[in-house]
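Internal tracking record. Fields below are filled automatically when a chain is submitted to the structure queue. Please do not edit lines marked as system-generated. If the sequence contains nonstandard residues, flag them in the REMARKS field before resubmitting.
Queue: standard
Priority: normal
Entity type: single polypeptide chain
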Amino acid sequence: MDDGGDAPAHDRLAGVLRPVRAGNGFEEALAQILQVLRLGLVPEGGRLPAERDLATRLRVSRVTLREVLKALQDEGLVESRRGRYGGTFVRPRPEPARDARDELRRRLADVDVEDTLRMREVLDVGAAGLCAENGPDEAAARRLRDALAGTREATPAGYRRADTLLHLTLAELSGSPSLAAHYAAVRAELNELLDCIPLLVRNLEHSQAQHAALVEAVSEGDADGAREVMREHCAGTAALLRGFLS
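SYSTEM-GENERATED OUTPUT FOLLOWS
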């Protein structure tokens, strides 16, 4: 059996793994390693490169990389072994049940993933900028704070709903009813895609930090800052969706 040792894997992965952007290190690193697994560049039972090598290639901290590997292990895609011949090994991927495969195909057939991601970014970034430029009054600022609090207090099962409400609130406060209507339609398609991938604790924590920075920027009237935070936030979600669904 090919053990997927570090030197051969290093060569196979040279064209796939690349430095990630600082804003979404966890999400982008996870997406890249998912691509390695999906392409079969490290065979079932094979070993991923050492943590030090992976962290260097991706330019992420060892802490972030370990969070990525834990998320993959929680999903049953890799396993960690200790000892002299230890490391992170690729697990055989069980075939999903036929009903699950059919349901996933049905959802993906109804949604153009890339178009949805592009439109979501355009509308979310635009809404964030408009909200900040408009300078929310006290009532609007309270709505944003309440929506943000809802995401903090949500259970994992209720998080997606709370997240959706926060983004819809931004769209509604943009001052453009047309933008809000278009965003609601695109968000419904986005949620169809998000329902196809797992909820990852590290990603939720990162999203919460971005949500807080976003609400702060909007409340302070920092339109450029609000757009930049939202752009990074959208990029993180897009990286995860592409990683799991492409």
